[in-house]
Design a protein that fits this description.
mainly beta; single chain; about 10% helix
């Protein structure tokens, strides 16, 4: 029985490998022809996630899109989104499995951007202006997103509308990012903030902490009216 089971397992694994190879989307097969551009050596792994709006999607050479990655333009398939591309992924990128990239106005991902699994990137957000209308029924707002070349997005990071990341940035796993960050930023947290940066003069460094406010004389440690211990620091 063990011999039969082993042979059956080998057959199943070989068949699944063949299915994955045949099911991958490249510029050489019919599914790849639907994209505005799917570069040489680029591959969308099988099984894919939700993919629609291919006419407005450009993917550069040698980019690997992992399994179950959803990449879409527009709210639903079949909507005319105009003459220009909306989602642009550069060359040499690696997009981790389970990631969702949802574009409505403009998402630019530079060359050599790597992501961990289950990253979410979108240029559209729901609004809650009217307190009486269900939030899901209020018209959402768009704001372009750009991610600079050479950046790394950790597992589970969320990139919200209006985000602009410079080149060679690091986004910590689980961070929720919104806003503009310069080249060579390391951002982390919810909401994400700058935790490290780089300059030729200082190398990699933490951002300067704001100065501590000066205490009035009667609030300084050791003052007879406060009773605060002398070990508490203060700023003159």
């Amino acid at each position: 029985m063990s011999v039969v089971r082993r042979a059956l397992g080998t057959l199943i694994h070989r068949a699944y490998t063949a299915i994955r190879d045949a099911g991958a989307i490249t510029h050489e097969n019919p599914a790849g022809h639907a994209f505005r551009r799917l570069g040489d050596g680029a591959k969308i792994a099988f099984p894919p996630g939700a993919i629609f709006g291919e006419r407005w999607i450009e993917i550069g050479d040698s980019t690997l899109i992992g399994e179950r990655v959803s990449i879409s333009c527009g709210m639903t398939p079949g909507v005319d989104l105009g003459p220009d591309s909306i989602l642009r992924i550069g060359g040499g990128c690696s997009i981790g499995r389970g990631t969702h990239i949802v574009a409505h106005q403009s998402i630019d991902i530079g060359d050599d951007v790597f992501t961990g699994p289950y990253v979410y990137i979108t240029d559209q957000n729901h609004v809650y202006d009217d307190p009486e209308i269900p939030i899901g029924r209020q018209w959402p707002r768009n704001s372009p997103v750009s991610i600079g070349a050479g950046s790394w997005l950790g597992a589970g990071a969320i990139i919200l509308p209006g985000t602009r990341l410079g080149r060679q940035c690091v986004v910590a796993g689980g961070a929720v990012v919104r806003g503009e960050f310069p080249d060579h930023s390391v951002v982390a947290g919810v909401p994400a903030r700058l935790v490290r940066g780089y300059s030729p003069e200082l190398g990699w460094h933490s951002p300067a902490a704001p100065p501590r406010p000066a205490l009035p004389p009667d609030a300084r440690p050791g003052h007879p009216l406060t009773g605060l211990p002398r070990t508490v620091p203060w700023t003159e």
